[in-house]
Amino acid sequence: MNFFIIGIDDNREQFFTPEVRQVIQSHAVFSGGARHYEIVKSYLPGKHVWIPITVPLSDVFLQYRIHEAVVIFASGDPLFYGFANTVLREMPEAKVKVFPFFHSLQLLAHRLLMPYHDMHIVSLTGRPWDKLDEALIRGYEKIGVLTDNKEHTPATIAARMLEYGYGNYTISVGELLGNEEKEKVSDWRLEEVIGKIFAYPNNLILRRTYVRPRQFGIPESDFHLLDGRARMITKMPIRLLSLSMLDLHDRHVFWDIGFCTGSVSVEAKLQFPHLRIVAFEQRTEGEQLMHDNARKFGTPGIETVIGDFAQIDTTPYPSPDAVFIGGHGGKMDEIIEKISELLVDDGVIVFNSVSEESRRLFLNAITKYNLQLRQTIRIQTDDFNSIDVMKATK
Questions:
Q1: Which candidate, 181, 351, 353, 366, has a CA 20 to 30 Å from the CA of 234?
Q2: What's the rounded mean pLDDT across residues 341-355?
Q3: In sequence order, which residues have a C-beta less than 8 Å from that of residue 254 and are 6 or more positions away?
Q4: ∠ CA 322-326-329 to the nearest 5 degrees?
Q5: Does the pLDDT of residue 46 top 60, yes or no?
C-alpha cells in the first residue's frame, strides 16, 4: 500500500509544487482532519473519496487498508509530532512518501525573526505535563510548546509556570499561523496570559529572561517542616548519598515511600527532572508539605499518595525501577514484600537505617523476598546518630 502525506498550513490558498499537484490529480482517495478538508477540497478531483481522521484511529486504518493508495493531508511537517509517525507505526509495511511544510513552531519563529536552532521543543498536545516540567527545571533558554485546546492552553501553561516559580520567561503566542486573514502573533508577560483565550490552533515560544537558581543539595532548614521538627527530614548529606546510590540517571520511575516533608522527592526531581516520581506518605499533613515544598523549589509533577503504603492500591501507578524507603512504620516486611513484586528487574531500593533494629528488619526482609544487598555506607552528620545507607537490588 502507498501513502502520500502532504503537509499544509492554515492558508486557504495553498501553494503546491508540480509534483504535489500531480499526486493530488492522479489519486482518488484522500484523508485528513475536518479543518484540512475545508482547506484542500477545492484542489481535489471532482470524484474523490474522503476518509476523515477521527478517533478511534483503528477504524480509520481499516478504511485505509481497502485501498491501494491514500493521499493524506496533515499540518506542517507530518513527521514533526505528526500523522506520518502514526502511519509508520500502524502500517510499517506500507510505502510512505512525505511532502513536508514548515511546522507551526518554525512558522512562529519566522514571524518573530528568532533563530530557532537552539530551541528545545515540547509537545503538550494530548500529552501530560512531564516534558514541559523537565524543560523548565533544566532551564532551557528557548522552549517551543505545542498546545491543545483542552488542558494545555497558553493560559493554563502560564498559570502552572507561575505556580512553581518559573516567572523567568516571556511568552510569544502564534494563533492560526499560515491563515493570511486570521493569523496573529503576540508577546506577553506570563501574568498577562492568565485567563486569556486564544484562537486555536495556537502554539507558543517561551524565552528566558534570567537564569533561575537550581540548587544542588538543599539545606534542611530551607524546607517547610513537619511541625517545625528538623529531625523529621532526611539531612542534606544523607539525602545526596541516598540519591547517588539509587543511580537515578538511568532510571525512569522513582517511588519515595514515607516522604514526610518531601525533601528526597524534591531533590530527586531537581537533579533528575526526567523522572516520574510517585511519593507515598501515611500522615495526611504530608500532602500539604509536599505541595508547599514542590512549589518553593520549582519541582512540578511529583505525584503524592496519602495512606498506609502496605494497604494502598498501586495499580494506577507505573512499576518503579528505583525506590527510597524513608519510613516503614513497623511494617518493613509488608513494604518489602510489596516492593519486591512491583520492582522491575535490576531495580534498586535504598533504605536509611537509624538503628540496629531497623537495620535487622531491612536485612531480614530483603533476604526473605530474594533481594540482594549491594552496598552499605555508614554516615554521621553533626551530633546525630550514625546512619547506615543500604542499597539492595532485584
A1: 366
A2: 94
A3: 246, 248, 265, 268, 272, 275, 276, 277, 278, 320, 321, 322, 323, 324
A4: 125
A5: yes
Residue 117 falls within a domain, yes or no?
A: yes
Contact, 195 vs 150, CB < 8 A?
no
Q: What is the mean pLDDT of residues 159-187?
A: 96
- Domain end position, chosen among 39, 74, 101: 101
For residues 248 and 315, state if they share a domain: yes
Residue 215 in any domain: the answer is no
Residue 199 and residue 162 share a domain:
yes
At 211-245, the pLDDT tens digits run 999 989 998 888 887 765 556 677 889 999 999 99
Parent domain of 23: 2-101
- The pLDDT value recorded for residue 343 is 96
Last residue of a domain, one of 101, 136, 153: 101
Per-residue pLDDT tens for 261-312?
A: 899 999 999 999 999 999 999 999 889 999 999 999 999 999 999 999 999 9
Query: Domain check: are 151 and 265 in the same one?
Result: no
Look at residue 213 and tell me if it is in a domain. no
Question: So what's the pLDDT on residue 200?
Answer: 94
Separation CA 125–CA 136 (nearest Å): 17
